[in-house]
Amino acid sequence: MKKFIALFATIAVAISLVGCSSDEMRPNQEKEVDVLEEEYLRSLTPDDFEYYATMEKRHNMVMAKLTDEPIEKVVTKRFPISELLESDLHRELNPAFSFQIAVRRADEMFQIELLRQTSKEYMYAVYKTEEGGLFYAFFIGEDVAQGGMLQNYIYAVKSLERKDFSSLQIGDDISLVERIDPAVTPQKKWLDTQTFNDTPQIKHLLRDGLLLIDYKRSEDSYVVTDMKYYEDFKFEKDLVVFDCSVLESDYPQSIG
What is the pTM of this model? Predict the structure, then answer.
């Protein structure tokens, strides 16, 4: 259990190491992790240890959802996409913030029925929506199976490729993107309620890569300001490498 507890003391530092090469780490950073762990462990009370034992048990129950079984065989529940978007699952990881969404917490909000681990650092959960799409919640961690934090989400309703977006240009209205990818529609409705965000971004999970489209809020709509395509499904932000790749069988094409 000591290893599980130590993750809570060092999560901010540990996340910052994911995807970084050794020359990107500041001097003595690994030593700082060890010091933080020991200081935190010494500060714990018996009640703290009991709490973390309970949390570890819950975490292990969620991790038991790791499977190679098809989505159709495992995922039985459906959630309204509006509820998923309005929840904390819409958050994107920011290492500067102390508040992060653990896998266990995600399961408490919306029961996880299926997890896929794509590497030591990355895994994702798949939710079916009442509207027929798939909502992917991606998790990241130095050892994600021991303590993954929510990385970001993507909503998808159909199988698409980069060429499907070839007609889009900077300055186009979001309605043109909706015609290509209907997954944009509920996300636009949710963005309409987030009046504090004038420069939103929507991610598109494609068969041949990841497409990020940036927008600027206009008077009554959103205008495309930038498009970034990542063939390997990975992009870097705040020194963290995000991976949004999924198994070929987990695209929405064949999901009912």
Answer: 0.81
